[in-house]
Amino acid sequence: MARSGANRLPIERGLKINSTAAVIQAAVAARGVALVRKALVAQELDSSRLVHLLPDVRWPVKWAYYIVAAPKALSRYEVAAFHVWLASRPR
Question: So what's the pLDDT on residue 20?
Fold first, then answer.
């Protein structure tokens, strides 16, 4: 984010979660975005509780990760800004 010129929040601020399940639940609750394996959010994607922000992007890693968020989270400035920044990154 710093290399993109985005405003950075102080490290002490913001939500910090050290549990994949809790990260997914935070995304479902529209608290932001989550970087997770698709297999872990397949039901949430199928039910539209989460949306895949960059469905055409694949990163060349053994385990794939997907950026997902609750549809209503996209109306939050910081989530929309992160989405725009991430989508603009070279692939």
Answer: 87
